Amino acid sequence: MADLHTPQLPWSTRLWFAFACFFRVLFDSQFAARAWQAREAVAALPPDERAEPRQLERDRAGGAPAAPEAAAAAAREPAPAPQAAPAVSSALQLLSLLQREGRLVDFLEQDIASFGDADVGVAARMVHEGCRKALRSHAKLAPVRREDEGAKVTLEAGYNPSEIKLIGNVSGTAPYRGVLRHRGWRADDVSLPTPVAGHDASIIAPAEVEL
Q1: Angle 11-27/29-44 helices, nearest 10 degrees?
Q2: Strand pairing partners for 178?
Q3: pLDDT at residue 17 above 80?
Q4: With b meaning 16 or more CB within 10 Å and e meaning fewer, what string describes 132-165?
């Protein structure tokens, strides 16, 4: 059985990496398309292949050559059609709401290196309050798993890999027994305002001029 216990990244590293990926996906359509394709490809793999990506790369690069029948079959298969880049207007609209209610973009674009921890904490609390209000007003979220984090869980064969990601020393086949490190989040409902005619979604927040 798989032991899913693994050292976790620090919260600050996860926060930085999450925001870096978030904005890269928002504003780089090619990166977003590649990330989406990678996610779909990994989700489609069986658990034992997802567990050892480096070994798979080494095998494909320098391992035994593929059987002639498999090579011929691969040559006959048509190349997959390129997927269209995901639309970003809804993501920009949500980002605009987070900026309006919680000044999220202002906070992220502010250089806080010279600020003290107390000042950063006060600002983060205000941003958290506003962004939480915006998120809860327009999205209904629910945890993927109902157990408490740290609880022992068993994953039977046929579990949904889109809902559950195996981490740690993954080997063998289901059932897997491990420890729930994160419950996950699922959007049960999203309700964004209907844009008015002529609305430019790329304007996250208009400039303000006082007269």
Answers
A1: 120
A2: 153
A3: no
A4: eebbeebbeeeeeeeeeeeeeeebeeeeeeeeee
Which amino acid would we find at residue 102? G
> Could you report how far apart the first and last alpha carbons of the chain are, in Å?
68
Helix (H, G, I), strand (E, B) or coil at 169: strand
Phi, psi (deg, nearest 5) at residue 124: -65, -35
Q: What is the pLDDT of residues 188-203, one digit of tens each?
A: 999 998 888 888 999 9
The residues that bridge with 187 in the sheet, in sequence order, are 141
C-beta separation of 185 from 18 below 8 A? no
Which of the four pLDDT bands, split at 50, 70 and 90, describes residue 97? very high
Alpha-helical segments (H) within the chain: 11-27, 29-44, 47-51, 53-62, 68-76, 89-102, 104-109, 117-138
Query: CA–CA separation, 4 vs 178, rounded Å?
Result: 5
Stronger pLDDT, 97 or 34, i.e. the higher one? 97
Which distant-in-sequence residues (6+ apart) come within 8 Å of 124 by Cβ?
Answer: 107
65-88 pLDDT, tens digit per residue, is: 555 565 566 666 676 767 666 668
Structure tokens at 172: 């063998």
